[in-house]
Specification:
Chain A has about 400 residues and is of the alpha+beta class. Chain A is built from 13 helices and 16 strands. Chain A is globular. The N and C termini of chain A lie far apart (about 75 Å). Classes of the chains: A alpha+beta (about 400), B alpha/beta (about 270).
Chain lengths: ~400, ~270
Amino acid sequence: MSRPARTPDGPRVKAAGPVAFGLDGLDALIAKLSESGYEVKGPVSRGGAVVPGSISGVDDLPAGVHDEQSPGSYRLTQGDDGRLFAWAVGPGSWKGEFFPAHQDVWRARVSDETIEFTEAVGEAAPLAIVGARPCEVRALEVLDRVLKEGTYRDPRYADRREAAFVAVVECASPASTCFCTSMGTGPGIEEGFDLALTEIDDEGGHRFVVRVGSDDGSEMLDGVPSVAADADDLEARARVLGGAAATMGRHLQTEGLAGLLARNMDHPRWSDVGERCLSCGNCTLVCPTCFCSDVHDTTDISGESSRARAWSSCFDLDHSYLHGGAVRASSSSRYRQWMTHKLSTWWDQFDTSGCVGCGRCVTWCPVGIDITEEAASIAASDGATRVSLPSTRGGS
Amino acid sequence: MHRVVERIRETGDVVTLCLEPVSGARLDFLPGQFNMLSVFGVGEVAISVSGAPRDAGPLRHTVRDVGAVTHALSESAAGDLIGVRGPFGSDWQITPVNAGVAMETRDVVVVAGGIGLAPLRGAVHELVAAQREGGGRVFLLVGAREPSQIVFNDDLEAWARDGAKVMVSVDRATTKWQGRVGLVTTLLGDAGFDPSNVRAMLCGPEIMMRFTARALVDMGVDPEAILVSLERNMQCGLGWCGHCQFGPLLLCRDGPIVAYAGLVSRLLSERER
């Protein structure tokens, strides 16, 4: 029932206008991606959370799954609706698919004459993501600035990223911890995808409005049962996005924020949040843009040595280790490092915000520290400083 | 891959490793840049090059034994293999003599604390050579905790012979010490450079650079003319690992050598702990 839309650009561009398909269309798209050589992954409900996982059809997607999120709390609930994307982002971001939590860099064997290195290269099939959220696509673009577009290109990350197919699903159900509208990263998306889907479930039926963002996207739609999206479909999409924006749980005042934090490095709020922060690093692990990594060498008994890199966190004491001790010894200084990096110095380093407003750090903080609340508190008392008591150990 | 051709003991816990490439060309670098040195099976660490580009000899790095990798480096012997990645980072912006560029005629004051002289050593070689050719006068002020921790004594003598003004001060004197005692900042007033026409290069403990830079500014030195060499944990050298952040700076990319003026003077006065 394929019916490619006609466009003014001529017949060569297939399906350049929005199309609509039902579950059968989505199922066919997943099958076609798989047949085309992609390893297809999407959101799956596993271990009580919606996380990235392998999918082979719509049956693997979390039908009827909803979530309740608040600072320090995440719960899934099962509804009797058939919606597949009626949840907000879970703890696992797509970052890990391109920048794994642990990755071998090389292995080496030593002899008297030299050391032979073998580079660890991934042989994995290219990745197709079905069901990333707009905020997550924006987060990958933030990571691109660090690992793909800087002075040095990380080939492991960049090759996999460039080969990937991204079918984004616009957000209809933000959590109470979400603030993508503040960051300009959602709930809709206009570029940076191969296909963009919007899930609609109204009197017109359960269907997806699909927009094409690339030639690859257009090609994948070829043969997938779809119809041209009509005015009702497009209106329904607008209603979904409007509803999502209206139910956004949180807000972050971004205007002047980078400068606000830069000039409030001695604000008393840093001590206050340092008292609450456990330095557990959960926020950095769930964050879709945190890119810090450790590089470790290990040797095994055969005489082979390997170098690996693994995610690390600026909340680890060792993160700032410098001959003899940590530069940032207190929780207060580490939280300040993390938050000022996300919202302020990231701009200096990479000309973008390091935060996309996905709200994960708020939900997954075991004590419910809320980055939007911390920023608002500093904004409300701009210029306040910590009281300095006379030191008995001399000034520093 | 490089091979250790010589290990020179500088002090009780500081050695200089002289390295030759196992194959291929000698690594080009600018004074002040660093390399990532790795010891098989132990790990990798950022170490500034302590040689001078004008020396045709082996690649030199001076290492203090403070952690697992620097210990392994310190224990390495002639013939051992060392991994070298680099060079990385910014440099002291020295214009070499005969580069076909106008000679820098401003005085230059170089202030080093302890092993902080290592990243400056190549620069001082160039500056002393430039002074002989009509470049600015060189004032080298060296501070060390105690006399036994002064590095590059032979170089200090040679630079003084070649016309640099070399002053050394120690925090704690021993009975044999005939020289000055006190923080390196106490040398600034007596050095004799022209504060209105001088550039400065500082490398040492952060607190030393902070107070030295402030003292220089108080003397009338232009903050833009003061360069400092900053240090944070470095694991990749490529701007990927995030460890070397110092406020908005990624020091492997934006540093280690940066102008003191503005941002950096503020960063140095903010408490990070």
